[in-house]
Amino acid sequence: MTDLAQDPRRAIELCRAAEERLAATVADLGDDELRAPSLLPDWSVGHVLTHLASNADGHARRVEGALRGESLGKYAGGAEQRRDEIEGGAHRPAVEVLAGLRASRARLLDLFGTADAAGWPHGELLGGEAYPVTACPAHRLREVEMHHVDLGLSYTVADWPQEYVDWDLPVLLATLPDRLDALDQRSLMAWVAGRGVADPGWNVGAWG
After folding, report:
1. Which domains does the chain possess?
2. What is the pTM of this model?
C-alpha cells in the first residue's frame, strides 16, 4: 500500500483525477441544485462546493508559502475565516460558485505541479497544521473524495478508487477511539475482535 501522505507525486495524480470527476458531476448544476440540502447537516450543496473552493485556496496558501520558505496555515484567520467564507459564499448564484471552484482548483493543481517539479522545497513546514506541506496533495484528495459523496448527487462511496481507500481507511480507523465515547469504544473493540456485532447506534464524532 502506498502511503499517499509520503508520496505527493502519486497523490497529485489521484487528486487530478478526483477533481475531474467532481467537475463532471457539478458542471451543469443550477441555482436550485445548489440550494438543495447536501448529506451534511445544515449544509446545502452550495456550502459543500464553497468549502471545497476555500479548502483548495487554503492548501494553495500553504504550498505557495513553502515555495517562499514561509510556514503558513491554510487559513490566515483560522477556523473563523473558514466558517465565514463558507457561509458567506454558499448562497451566491451557481455560476459564481462553480467559477470560483474551477479557479481555486486550477490554481492549486498548478502549485502542486510547481512544488513537485522543484522537489518540494521546505515541504516539512507545518504552519500550525497537523501534517507537512508534502502531505497537502493527499489531504486535498481526501477532501474531494469525501465531499464529492457529501453532495448527495451521483457519486457514492462505491465510486471511491481502491488506491484512495487503501490509504485513507487505516488513517481514519486510527482516529476512531478518540471519536467514540467509552461505551462505544468497548462495543467497537468487541466487534473488531470478533466478539460482537457492528452497532448502527455508535455515536461516531465527525471526521475533520
Report:
1. 4-174 (1.20.120.450), 177-208 (no CATH)
2. 0.91
d(CA 45, CA 38): 5
Query: Shortest CA distance to 33 belongs to which of 149, 152, 145, 150?
Result: 152
List, for residues 72-131, the tens digit of each pLDDT value.
988 877 777 777 778 877 889 999 999 999 999 999 999 999 999 999 999 999 988 889
Cα separation of 71 and 11, whole Å? 21
What is the C-alpha separation between 136 and 12, in angstroms, rounded? 9
- Residues 116-175: pLDDT tens digits? 999 999 999 998 888 999 999 999 999 999 999 999 999 999 999 999 999 999 999 888
For 146, the 3-state DSSP assignment is: helix
Element (DSSP H or E) covering residue 162: helix 162-173
If one counts every other C-beta atom within 10 angstroms of the C-beta of residue 53, the result is 22
Among residues 149, 134, 155, the alpha carbon closest in space to that of 11 is found at 134
